[in-house]
Design brief:
Elements: H1 31-34, E1 39-44, H2 59-66, H3 81-84, E2 87-92, H4 100-116, E3 120-125, H5 131-142, E4 145-150, H6 170-176, E5 180-190, H7 198-205, E6 208-212, H8 213-219, H9 221-232, E7 237-242, H10 264-272, E8 279-285, H11 296-325
Parallel strand pairs: 1-2, 1-3, 3-8, 4-5, 4-7, 5-6, 7-8
Bound molecules: 4-carbamimidamidobutanoic acid and zinc ion (2 copies).
Protein name: Agmatinase
EC number: 3.5.3.11
Family: Belongs to the arginase family. Agmatinase subfamily.
């Protein structure tokens, strides 16, 4: 697509019913159908890094299936994300299920390739291990990035069974590697039992601030979004959403569920409150459809990815407009 051409949007639901045909995210064109894209939605079918229930390797396709019902206009952000910028489904990154190190390298390499085209990534996991190679790739382009991490868990543990690359450890590795801007790191939705108090002191030393799920309930979504926006400022921002940030009532289909989580409404509202942030890429991980019912989890995930995609599209359009005005 040249910069003057209008983006190619989703399949017209008034002509082809939404339940027909193979699924792409939001029924958008595949990347090979449009040549290049501003936002690449990409799946990572990988779950070898999990410590409890497996199955997130099927998450990306479950989210694609559940996203058939998304409509092209987003009233909450007053934007038509797929008209403002080209958004396309880039398919899946093939990752070795029997070798975590090799898989981590493959994800980093594929992310490098997509980012080098100028696209931003909306990655659908996969387990949380994949956030590390994605952050490595984003940091090569933008330098250390601010991180907003929505999750029941800290994911800053050191190792599991001696393994460094797991779904409970990506953000400790990322801090060690210097790819995060440690003045702007926040967990949101944290809750549940830990291995010890040390988990919290270690996490704080790495620079993380914590907004617990109880904080969200007590202080409300607007105040939380304001606080996060202030902390992030205009830094390049990466958002990583582990779907287990939601209460198991809102997201049963996940591998390490914890009671007392956010509602899908709270998550979506906080994301909308971040629409002015400079979102350079995002992931949504840990959807494990085998434990889901009636697509509860994958529908919630598809809507969260839709809000993130809208934020990116609006910014891409605004940047283009500013450039054209010059
Ligand atoms: N769901 C993610 N990313 N991490 C959970 C790790 C929790 C544990 O095994 O103790
Ligand atoms: Zn988690
Ligand atoms: Zn996680």
């Amino acid at each position: 697509m040249s910069s003057t051409e209008a983006p190619r949007g989703p399949i017209d639901s008034s002509r082809v019913p939404r339940y027909a045909g193979p699924a792409t995210f939001a029924r958008l064109p595949r990347l090979d159908e449009v040549g290049r894209t501003d936002v690449a939605v990409v799946g990572v079918p990988f779950d070898t890094g999990v410590s409890y229930r497996p199955g997130a390797r099927f998450g990306g396709n479950a989210i694609r299936e559940a996203s058939r019902l998304l409509r092209p206009y987003n009233p909450a952000q007053d934007a038509s994300p797929f008209a403002l910028a080209q958004v396309a489904d880039a398919g899946d990154i093939a990752a070795n299920p029997f070798n975590i190190n090799e898989a981590v390298e493959a994800v980093e390499g594929a992310a490098d390739d997509l980012l080098s085209t100028g696209a931003r990534l909306m990655t659908l996991g996969g387990d949380h291990t994949i956030a590390l190679p994605l952050l490595r790739s984003v940091a090569k382009k933008h330098g250390p990035v601010a991180l907003l991490h929505f999750d029941a868990h800290l994911d800053t543990w050191d190792t599991y069974f001696g393994a460094e690359y797991t779904h409970g450890t990506p953000f400790r590795r990322a801090v060690e590697e210097g790819i995060l801007d440690t003045s702007a790191l926040s967990h949101v939705g944290t809750r549940g039992p830990l291995y010890g108090k040390q988990d919290l002191t270690d996490d704080e030393k790495m620079g993380f601030g914590i907004v617990t799920s109880a904080d969200v309930m007590r202080r409300g979504v607007d105040e939380i979004a304001d606080q996060l926006r202030q902390r992030i400022g205009d830094r390049p921002l990466y958002i990583s959403i582990d779907i287990d940030v939601l209460d198991p009532a809102h997201a049963p289909g996940t591998g390490t569920p914890e009671a007392g989580g956010l509602t899908s409404r709270e998550l979506l509202e906080i994301l909308r409150g971040l629409s002015s942030c400079h979102l350079v890429s995002a992931d949504l991980v840990e959807v494990a459809p085998a434990y889901d019912h009636a697509e509860i989890t994958s529908v919630a995930a598809s809507h969260a990815a839709y809000e993130l995609t809208t934020i990116m599209s609006r910014q891409i359009a605004a940047a283009k407009e500013a450039k054209d005005a010059k």
